[in-house]
Amino acid sequence: MGVPFEALIPYGIIITMFGVTGAGLTAVKYLSNDGKKARWNRDLWDRVMMERDLRLTGNLRGQSSNAVAPKGFEVNNPWKLEKRIF
């Protein structure tokens, strides 16, 4: 006795939904990274460079080829202030 085709409909729906969610996740990652592939295995150096790029260009994935930093970058310091106890 064969499998009735009605039993295959839920499997088709499940496979379709996995495909839709996978494509949606890929699209969201692609758009949130300014049309570039998502970064993976980031270490401290990468995070520091991403913060610098954010301060220079305004987004994490932007890079600038200007030899001179924009006006106001010298006062845009990423270091956090410490409380000094005397």
Outline the secondary-structure elements:
Blueprint lengths: L7 H25 L11 H14 L29
What is the tally of beta strands?
0
Global morphology: elongated
Task: Tally the helices.
Answer: 2
Following the backbone from N to C, one meets helices and strands in this order, namely HH
Low-confidence stretches: none
Cα-atom Rg, whole angstroms?
24 Å
Structural class: mainly alpha
Summarize the main sheet. none
Could you please describe the fold and organization of this structure?
Keywords: Electron transport, Membrane, Mitochondrion, Mitochondrion inner membrane, Respiratory chain, Transmembrane, Transmembrane helix, Transport. The protein is mostly helical and 86 residues long. It has helices at residues 8-32, 44-57. It folds into two domains: 1-32; 41-74, no CATH class. The protein contains two helices and no strands.
Defining traits:
mainly alpha, 2 domains, about 90 residues, NADH dehydrogenase [ubiquinone] 1 alpha subcomplex subunit 1, NADH_Ub_cplx-1_asu_su-1, transmembrane helix, electron transport, about 45% helix, elongated
Write a short abstract of this structure.
This protein has 86 residues and is mainly alpha-helical. It has 2 domains: 1-32; 41-74, no CATH class.
